[in-house]
């Protein structure tokens, strides 16, 4: 079976990268799989010329020169010019890359975004969805972001300091209500997107999850002035119940041995403990999302038990009751 053009080009690049010396065309013909398909020297020369042009068009630094003691021209790829330098992103930059990838919700762009993130992670770059995120690596997703149209309108309103009016669901099953807001900022927190600002109807600072805002969002005409001393990130953290200095304390969950890998990876402490005759560990977490952790515990079934604080225990109990009710229906 004839070697495909792509495979031949890859073989050629690998060959030229693996040598420090200049390889002659005749030597390359014997080393690179694909050139043995040429029926004559002339056919090989034509194929090799096309391949060299293709590599140069792709930006691959193909060098020509002569090895010591030889009068015949040879080829190699300069490895230092070919390889990318070390990728060094600070925490804010890596967060920006991840959030930008989340915005590419079009199927064609989503594939490119996933490829870019995989390459960065393979290069040792830690990608985070939020600069406040100190446990684990999680990318903001289009689902957590909500509608792209909503994000675009809110960002424009924030930039121009214009009020907005939108329909918002307080919970996934609640009826939408109309809200009027002077938006101060759009930020992410723990993988979710929020808009925070001054609620014109209630006269107070309010935070709204973008995934619960319905289209369309209308922009007003009367400008407002954003307070100078406002910290929108801290406001979102407090409203979402994730403030690092909050009074919820440490979450503790018993997890059976070999189970709950996600919970274990986020742990700040593991204490071996048996429960009901089963080996396991009590996992302590200082940074945790009540909703997310409760869902993980419920999903583990009998392999995990929420111990404290009460807010976590109550959420897990409610989740288990809901699962049982759904199974009985």
UniProtKB/TrEMBL annotation:
Pfam families: WCX, WYL. Keywords: Proteasome. PROSITE patterns: WYL (PS52050). Residues 250-324 form the WCX domain. It comes from the Bacteria. Residues 150-215 form the WYL domain. GO terms for cellular component: proteasome complex. PANTHER family: PROTEIN PAFB (PTHR34580:SF3), PTHR34580. This is Proteasome accessory factor B. It comes from Williamsia serinedens.
């Amino acid at each position: 079976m004839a070697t495909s053009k792509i495979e031949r080009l890859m073989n050629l690049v690998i060959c030229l990268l693996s040598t420090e010396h200049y390889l002659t065309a005749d030597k390359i013909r014997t080393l690179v799989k694909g050139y043995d398909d040429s029926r004559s020297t002339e056919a090989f020369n034509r194929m090799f010329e096309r391949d060299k042009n293709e590599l140069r068009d792709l930006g691959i630094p193909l060098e020509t020169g002569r090895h010591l003691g030889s009068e015949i021209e040879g080829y190699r790829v300069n490895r230092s010019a070919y390889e990318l330098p070390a990728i060094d992103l600070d925490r804010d930059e890596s967060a920006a890359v991840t959030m930008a990838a989340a915005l590419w919700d079009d199927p064609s762009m989503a594939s490119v975004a996933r490829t870019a993130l995989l390459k960065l992670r393979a290069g040792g770059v830690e990608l985070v969805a939020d600069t406040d995120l100190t446990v684990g690596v999680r990318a903001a997703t289009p689902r957590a972001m909500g509608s792209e149209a909503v994000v675009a309108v809110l960002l424009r309103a924030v930039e121009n300091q214009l009020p907005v009016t939108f329909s918002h669901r307080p919970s996934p099953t609640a009826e939408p209500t109309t809200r009027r807001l002077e938006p101060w900022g759009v930020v992410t927190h723990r993988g979710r997107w929020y808009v925070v600002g001054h609620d014109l109807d209630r006269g107070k600072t309010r935070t709204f999850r973008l995934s619960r805002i319905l289209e369309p969002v209308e922009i007003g005409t009367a400008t407002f002035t954003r307070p100078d001393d406002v910290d929108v990130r801290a406001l979102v953290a407090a409203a979402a119940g994730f403030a690092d200095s909050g009074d919820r304390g440490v979450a503790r969950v018993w997890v059976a041995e070999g189970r709950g890998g996600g919970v274990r990876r986020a742990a700040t402490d593991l204490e071996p403990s048996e429960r009901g005759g089963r080996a396991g560990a009590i996992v302590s977490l200082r940074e945790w999302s009540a909703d997310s952790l409760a869902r993980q515990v419920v999903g583990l079934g009998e392999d995990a038990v929420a111990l404290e604080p009460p807010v976590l225990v109550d959420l897990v109990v409610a989740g288990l009751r809901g699962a049982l009710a759904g199974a009985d229906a």
